[in-house]
Amino acid sequence: MDTPITLIEAITQALAWEMRHDDSVVVLGEDVGVNGGVFRATAGLQQQFGPERVLDTPLDETTIAGLTVGMAAQGMKPVAESQFDGFMYPMVDHIVCHAVRLRTRTRGRLHCPMVLRVPWGGGIRAPEHHSEANEAIFTNVPGLRVVMPSSPARAYGLLLAAIRDPDPVIYFEPKRIYRQYKELVPDDGEALPLDVCYVLRDGDDITLVTWGAQVKETLEAADRLAEDGISAEVIDVATLKPLDFDTIAESVAKTSRCVIVHEAAKTAGFGAEIAARLAEESMYDLLAPVERVTGYDTHIPLFRLEMKYLPSVDRIVAAAKRAVAAG
After folding, report:
1. Active-site residue, from 21, 130, 262, 299
2. What's the pTM?
């Protein structure tokens, strides 16, 4: 495609490509067919591929998850949608008790090539259960990949890779940046590798590690730091589970300092896992304690304080300057 597209349009483009080239791919969820999804990620797909491959389901997340696991076990490649991140919890039973255990339970005879697409995170002034940042819950589940793109190009390539993966993938979509900016995304069917961190900016003085919607603020913070003579390397984790820790460790070996930025609450957020790994494996490379810039240990406030809850450029810059000063 020669016209720049948004992240949400890149998702639609990836789904259409894979459905054209693989008849086993089906899409299902609440309102994904006739209405094209609550965020219009599946707009036009039912018209292209018919109601047998783009299925409107009942308003029942437990049933959606069960159907998805059953389809995957029988050789299909279902891509299900949870309308919002906070609606995932009824799906957990099928994900944790069946989807991720199918390969080991059957000693490799069956596997579960399913994708659960989840609009994720805050910043859109939505009500309760519509602004969760719950990725850490799922990174603790063995046998489950957890992926979160931060740009249209990565959304396209990572979704293709997720659909082609033989095991279950949770594909979190940062809804705050669904339509925030555009970029050219060739519709060529080229997947990006999973399980890889992306170095978005080279730097020598400090490593900034983040994912999802916070990539934007983190890159802006790196620009601000550069104005003060601090060279920041920015890493987009992209696949949280399994984590490409080597890329983070190599960066910290060069910069000797690290700030981890994420939207989720601080306690037991995924940033704590990265910090623990750095303490275990990169302690002697660090000149300063690892800093975390996160959401707070409360539910995201509605609505006036919502943006105060989310990590800001100012908070990221302040944490980076503390780390540089400490070392």
Report:
1. 130
2. 0.96
